[in-house]
Write the structure tokens for this entry.
Amino acid sequence: MSIEARLRLAYAAFTLDVDLDLPGRGVTALFGPSGSGKTTLLRAIAGLERAPGGRLVVNGETWQDEGVFLPTHRRPLGYVFQEASLFPHLTVLGNLEYGERRVPAAARRVSLAQAVELLGIGHLLARRPERLSGGERQRVAIARALALSPRLLLMDEPLAALDMKLKREILPYLDRLHDALEIPVLYVSHAPDEVGRLADHVVLMEAGRVAASGAITALTTRLDLPLAHGDAAAAVVEAVVAGHDAAYELTFLDFPGGRLTLPRHAVEVGQRVRLRIQARDVSLTLEPQTGTSILNILPATVTGLAADSPGQVMVGLDVGGAPLLSRITRKSADALGLAPGRAIHAQVKGVAILD
Amino acid sequence: MSEADWLALRVTLALSAVTTGVLLVLGTPLAWWLARSRSRLAVVLESVVALPLVLPPTVLGFYMLVLLGPRGPVGGTLEALGLHHLAFTFTGLVVASTVYSLPFMVQPLKDAFAAVGGRMTEAAATLRAGPWDRFFTVVVPLSRRGFLTALTLTFAHTVGEFGVVLMVGGNIPGETRVLSIAIYDHAEALDYASAHVLSGGLLAASFLLLLAVYAVNRRYRMLHP
């Protein structure tokens, strides 16, 4: 199960040149600044742009190679555009059926009813697209793509045109999609929070090339990449809910680096959750502190240091196998004598559950 | 209305209907190509299509006569094949009208196709619709107003042509004698009463036709902004 894409496309002022081997399951985020070629890559994978001489194999099926170019309508994919692009002359149901009807019965694995249920649009079926809100429109567009039973779902910043409130309305549906369906997703985004929440794998794009590609937990903490720098730098950690403390209203989460304690969340014991731990919320101490209000103090090993701003240093940590980031002042780094391999304790002030 | 005038009306309606039909078949792919092509040839072709808007109909008619007549490239070839040339025939009129009314079919369709845009056809392609499928299930329904405008303008414009008909078709009753020629004849003969009947009828019919189209389009625009 893999997606192999070797695509080269030259325009007057821009060249896309990628050679990627991506996991054939889960959500892969194409992440990078605007103009870095994310959308062009997605369009080339869909066959909406021609990249002559390229090669594209999706889970064993050749979509493009020497002498082979499947036109878009022959590729078993689903595509969600940045603007919903619903057909204005059809109702919501008409839009959903447009694609579904064109898929041979033998290839249908997601039923229309399932897609409608998953995106919560059952009450909208008789409406015309012009009478939907932006968020509803995008949900219909996602359901329309799902009803094709795609072998690969391509999403081009499906939330970019929406404001924060609508984004929050749609994100849970995308989470469900991730959990309920075994469809690999390529997700274009330039929003770190979306990527942190949804992606399993990240492809970092820069000026039409792949700057890095890897698991999200590894990539967000690699000190040589821009993702691990600045105010928003954060580690993504997978954890399991271990229990709750009824008296103090706390939730306990287990991850490879130990146990985290945080204010009670509405999650169930045994549930897998994804956490974001921001670099600026992690401080370092040589000896485990007592007499502190910080609950989460974890033994860690320094894996690397990199200048972040003139006065600040980003420190890479290994906490029982899970990578974390800590941003401290250069003065503190010198005072603590930090160097790769140094054993230390990480004090985690804030943990966000990404669900 | 005299027998001859009824005959002229029949010829006029037949000519307009056939011309509109021919132009729908020829003009649709041409308009589609013009709306989407980035080739330099498109600019040239667009200008050629617009020519009948500015040329005096007599100029167009003159060249059509030369082209379709017994010594012209088209008419001459037909003669050599043992067929009749097309000058002063109904078929010749249809050919000339098709050229004359070309912009009235192509321009509205081209604008409509351009407005539908690449996005909708791309969306249809990702929904497994092939090129023909996309055209008939997405482009045509979304270009309804353009088709309505194009068909009406083409029909009405062909009904009203005079100069081209006079040059190419002459004045053969039941074959090439159309309403505008009949009106001209009545006026020449100072039979203003008959001229009034035909002119007034044409004016009223044209106005009602355009009124209906614009009303439908406006209503549609208000329902689907």
About this structure: The first strand of chain A starts at residue 2 and ends at 10. The interface with chain B takes residues 46-48, 71-74, 77-79, 81, 83, 85-89, 98-99, 102-103, 128, 130, 144-145, 148 of chain A (CB under 8 Å).
